[in-house]
Design the sequence.
């Protein structure tokens, strides 16, 4: 609730108190009735303004973004074995990009898949993860074996086009060759 919302609520309460004071007072009816109506109108206007500010689209967008960011923020990518158990994890929190591949000494990769049983299917620089506009994206770096994605809640695995970014969601699984990387 913003300071404006608090002031609006305070003005509305003052409008009600003003109307009650006038109603109880000893003023003649021709003075009392317009003042009571004025107090009620101030209250109704304040209540409406407060309601509008709390249901404003921007307010709802911010609330939704905060709710999503706290519960479904991708902060880790984990290498899974064929049973779906985590073998190794890498932190993504605070990063803006990460190169996936295998470290052969001449290069540097952030997510090194060179020591797993399917390393022969992974290129030296196979893919890149990029963070933009609050979302993670994966892009195949024109690799030999490509990338596939299994979206959360779906059984189908989608093959990605080379050099075309794909938005990732919490719980998605990236297939790099036969390697499975889960986003959590």
Sequence:
């Amino acid at each position: 609730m913003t300071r404006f919302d608090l002031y609006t609520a305070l003005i509305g309460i003052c409008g009600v108190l003003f109307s009650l004071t006038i109603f109880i007072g000893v003023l003649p009816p021709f003075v009392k009735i317009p003042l009571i109506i004025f107090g009620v109108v101030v209250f109704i206007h304040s209540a409406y303004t407060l309601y509008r500010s709390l249901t404003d689209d921007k307010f709802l967008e911010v609330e939704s973004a905060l709710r999503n960011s706290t519960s479904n923020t991708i902060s880790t990518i984990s290498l899974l074995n064929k049973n779906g158990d985590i073998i190794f994890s890498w932190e993504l929190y605070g990063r803006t990009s990460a190169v996936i591949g295998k470290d052969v000494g001449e290069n540097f990769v952030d997510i090194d898949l060179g020591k797993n049983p399917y390393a022969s299917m992974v290129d030296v620089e196979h893919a890149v993860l990029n963070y933009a506009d609050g979302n993670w994206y994966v892009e195949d770096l024109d690799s030999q074996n490509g990338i596939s994605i299994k979206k959360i809640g779906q059984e189908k695995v989608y093959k990605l086009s080379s050099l075309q970014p794909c938005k990732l969601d919490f719980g998605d699984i990236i297939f790099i060759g036969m390697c499975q990387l889960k986003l959590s």
